[in-house]
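dude i think i finally got it to work??
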Amino acid sequence: MNENKEAFYSYLDDFDLVTIIVPYDDYQSSDEYHLKGNDEVIDLKILEQTHLRNEMKLVCSFDAYILLNLPYLVENNRKEQSSLRTGKIVRSELFDNIYYYKKTDLGVNYQKTSCKFKLWSPVAKQVRLELLSPEKNSEFHLLDYQSSGIWRLVLEGNYVGYRYRYHVQVNGKESVLTDPYGIASDTNSQYNYIVDKAQFEPINADIDFSGNPLDAVVLELSVRDFSMDPEMNFRYPGKFLGLIEPGIKTPLGQPAGFDYLKSLGITHVQLMPVLDFAGVDEKNPRSDYNWGYNPLQYFVLEGGYATDPEDSILRINEFRKVINAFHQANIGVILDVVFNHVHDRESFPMERLVPGYAFRVDREGIHTALSGCKNDLATERKMVRKLIIDALIYWATEFHIDGFRFDLMGLIDFETMNEVRQELEAVNPKILVYGEGWKMHSGNELDRMAHLENKKVLHTIGFFNDRFRDGIKGSTFHALEKGFATGDPFHAKDVAHWVEGSARQRWLFKYTSQSVNYVECHDNLTFMAKALLIQNDPILARKQARLALAMTVLSQGLPFIHLGQEFYRVKDFCENSFKAGDDINQIHWRELDLAIQEVEELRTWIRLRRRLPKLKSHSDLVASSKVEITPQSTVLIRLDQKEHFLILFKPLTQLEEIVIPKEYHLLYTSISAITIKKSGTCHLNDIGVCLFQGKDKPNDEF
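look at this
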């Protein structure tokens, strides 16, 4: 039936409710309605009548059990008919409970002699599998409906290398879609591939890591930006393999690329999105630029980062080579994942499989867009939650991924995040889980989200500490506003909280391990760009950037560094470079040659951090430290747990005299203008950091 010619429209809104929308010009109060389908005629009882602008809305009840996978019609006594469409029923608790599928066999189960296909759609009326052979011959097969919304097909034979997708009839229309659980894809995500996991490159190494977030030092980078610098002659610019090319050097012979990462002492790299995303033509990736925060497929790697995006196994194995290389260097790999929204709601496979299920709506039934991307995933719904957890387990088990960073985690419900944490710990007890805990709403409708205000029920999950960021750098959203390290001494009063992981008075975090300390990430202005905008003094800005980075590494919490901030990356002062192109976003490795001392300082701070057990203590030991603030806003942190240390952060250039207790000696300083008198008085005449150690302890080499 042509839906555009239907006399009225009908929607199944609950297991005993149908809503009928009748054009007012065609409405007759004497009309009666009934359901027809599955060889039944079911009477509809009108409960409510509401006159809308040009339509009459009828809410009807019925007393029968209907099968959602079968077609039904609503008919009136004038023999006018309407196809019964899926309505609000898919957002009911009962629907979620009845059609929740617990098993972990969705997608394709490949064997050399057979292939089993499973797809979830309780409301589809027909599902066809389209198979495309390596010779591009197509064939179609009908799937059988089972239970719990599962459609199933078993094909005998070896189908490795075949492409496939689904044709699904829902709400009177046929949609073509990829498999939500497909693990391999062709170029630009038109079809999924059937692959044999036996052809995967083995992951033959894991990292030696305690699992304590406070032992980690994370460096964020983009696969593409990392190797696009034309001066460096990367063999694989912008590709997965570009991450691990050895022997890349700056014009002055400094190690660049992979060798540089290995030299820093970091424990993990966080890769900006590498799962399949929109915004870049995989056939010609250099024609477009995009960070990748617009996901398409959650079990598939981005083809633009592969040397041949059409070769599904090659795409997978190149990434597995990357993981092996990082693990052999004892560097973990963290994936930046986006489960708060998708690229396009209408084309998202789960929306086509079960319209109205996978995305949040407000009380009026309008889709919310708190993510700023025109859709918000309803992570609290059981099969959306399952998709998220199954995807994460896949990456953690099959690829030995060492951690996950969640984009806009404050839009994911905390039940999902806690289940994520539990399931991932069962795979790898040392895995890191953290995300952006911004509260993205007002009111009570989303008060079960994984934002900072719900930290007490998310104690094993970390949060980006935006108060640390803005207090040290100045407001992220007001470019000229100063922070502690950019010349505003009034922020010194709050530094006591930030350097202790914001846990002393439980004012932000319950545990110091929840605090991800950072002053710069891929978003917004870099620290150096902001410092230059504030004062246009490159020498001063460099000193401030060094201080901010030192505070990031030497404060309690998980230190998070954005690649390039240690050598003053500015990205052409672009505030949001998500599609600004390679010229702005690429790492310019020659800048290392202008910051040799600063990079060596970063290495020193990381070594110092490993030497200071107090910086890796949880909140029960925070009380063993003492923070003081001098009249000129220098912050002194005394660490008195087992070994006695004193850290000094000086934010201003003015001369200052500070008396250091006699039992301490200078272990390290980034301040060149420093004089220490026999009395213990230090004369400090610049911005920077100092570290003192108790005299009863031997000198340490860093």
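Residues 698-702 have pLDDT under 50 and may be disordered.
im so relieved honestly
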